[in-house]
Amino acid sequence: MNQLFMDERKNAVSIDTFKKLKEISTPGASFKHYQLLTFTNGEMVLIRLSPNKIEGEYRIEDIIIVPEEAKKLFVDNK
Fold this sequence. Notes:
Layout: H1 15-24, E1 33-38, E2 44-52, E3 57-65
Antiparallel strand pairs: 1-2, 2-3
């Protein structure tokens, strides 16, 4: 999986995290497409996108205001 990371982020995820991922992984999984908007006032909004297969575009499925306690999940920890 480390090979899938962009060069400057290789090894950014610890071996322990990879091991935990292996433990919780199942053969079936679903993927959701989100875009995070971060405003200059610190507010964050997640936009859930759905692909429109006919037109080859994405459409907005939902808009979620990120609660204060969840914002730390999206802070860039390079």
